Amino acid sequence: MSILMLENARGPDGIILTKGSTITTLTAQQEDDLVGQGRARRITEKSQGPIPLMVTITSAQGVVKAGDQELFSINESGVIPMANRIGTPGSQGFGVGVCPVLPSGYAAMPGTTDTSSDNYGNYQYSDGSVMVWVPRFYYRIGSPASPLYGAYGDNAIDIAGDSAFRSEADANSAGYALHRAFFDGGPQLGFFVDKYQCSNNGGIASSIRYGAPLSTGAAHNPISALNGAPANTYAGTIAAAKTRGGAFHPASFTAE
């Protein structure tokens, strides 16, 4: 079975996917037509037969499925792919998501794509580290336009997924901002972050469940015991992180 990502929330033969609408089948020819017309893009191999698609109603959006598999959802903003969705605040799975393009060295885990699983949005790196994908999202704080403003005033926080706006400029005009964590020489689709505190995994600082957390204290699982003997200082955590690979680095945080 192939999966198509529809553009502008339009299905075959000009059908607009809205709540309650149904597409019974999508033939191989319809699939080719959609791709050829620029109304869809193929994100898996081409299908060898009809694909049953249907739209079901869940809250304010429609969910498009092939059989029991959710392919993508739609709302007033258009198509929201299953991959790289931040989710809905307060709902299961919110805050993490499915990585749209998996980098080398990473592998999905059982339950990675299942929002009801403890492993949703989790991936394992080649050293055994478990990391979580955080999809790109926009945030807005204390906006009078927020539906939460009446209850929370300046403390109202809104989160919008990557597909809610056509551009960062559009998001800014609506009072939203893109967090700097999603920039690295330009906007990124998201980032990986360790699920667990790092422990000494054969000389590598790895994110492994139940591991003894590393520290800069000589008497408490020191980072100096890692490969290359990083200094037991805050600056030494940079070298400690890179025992896993050159692309890894410690995350910054502010303690108040």
Q: What would you report as the Rg, rounded to the nearest angstrom?
A: 22 Å
Order of helices and strands: EHEEEEEEEEEHEHEEEEH
| Unreliable runs | 1-25, 43-61
Helix content: under 10%
Our measurement of the CA-to-CA distance between the termini, rounded to an integer number of angstroms, reads 51 Å
Give the overall average pLDDT. Answer: 78
Read across the widest sheet, the strand sequence of neighbours is 3-4-5-6
Oligomeric status: single chain
Largest pleated sheet: 4 strands, antiparallel
Number of helices: 4
Strand percent estimate: 25-35%
Globular, elongated, flat, extended or rod-shaped: what is the shape?
Answer: globular
Overview of this structure, please?
The protein has 256 residues and is mainly β. The N terminus is likely disordered. Among the domains are: 78 residues, no CATH class; 52 residues, no CATH class; 46 residues, no CATH class. Helix content is 10%, strand content 26%. The chain contains 4 helices and 15 strands. The strands form 5 sheets. The protein has a 4-stranded antiparallel sheet with strand order 3-4-5-6, with no helix packed on it. Strands 7-8-9-13 form a 4-stranded antiparallel sheet, with no helix packed on it. A 3-stranded antiparallel sheet has the order 11-10-12.
